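Pipeline run #58 for the internal structure catalog. This entry was flagged by the ingest filter as a single-chain record with no existing model, so it goes straight to prediction. Upstream metadata was stripped on purpose; only the residue string is passed forward. Reviewer on rotation: M.T. Logging verbosity set to normal.
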Amino acid sequence: MNKSSPGYILAFIIALSVVFGFGISFVNYATVDLLKKNEALHRNRVISSAFMLSVSGNNAADYEGAVKKEIRPFSLTARGKTIQGYRHTATGNLGFVFSGTGFWDKITGIIVLSPDLSTVKNIHFLDQKETPGLGARIEEPQFTAQFRGIQPAWDRPETERIIIGASPDPGAKNRVDAITGATQTSIALMQALNRELAAFKKAYSQRESNTP
């Protein structure tokens, strides 16, 4: 067959696609269980860190055991979507998974509040793809530690309950400093947190009021 003919070129492309497609499918099939295990380990690590659980070791079973022992998951429905929530049995602290669009991609994390929702206890991130050295610094302890003890201003408009960045009142109990050089990521995170906090509070309050 003439190697420069359209028929040969088409057959070659099809054969190449089949070979590489099979290879990719095989790798995906072979690693799917490992990926699921790694995802579960990562989530349990984040939950453990967010709720400051005591973990006996550093392997998957240790984190899974700590979460199963001390955390009770629950689900809420708000604004047409399911919110994954968690309750710490010892303290009653409540956490939930929040998400929103960052400067580059989706940001997902867990925020933990006191049982009466008056105080933020902690915040940790499950996934983010912001710029390394800039927006990605939202995961650094220097930033997340600021959230411990702040008090959402539930009496304020939804967009102002948590402030990340400048405020007329620098000492406000609902404010943390933004990431230097990452204004857009800080704003995006603030918008996501305020939107998700409002949805969680409404759904959780409704559930509590309907519980005998």
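catalog note: The chain is about 40% helix and 20% strand.
catalog note: Residues 52 and 70 are 11 Å apart (CA to CA).
status: ready for reviewer M.T.
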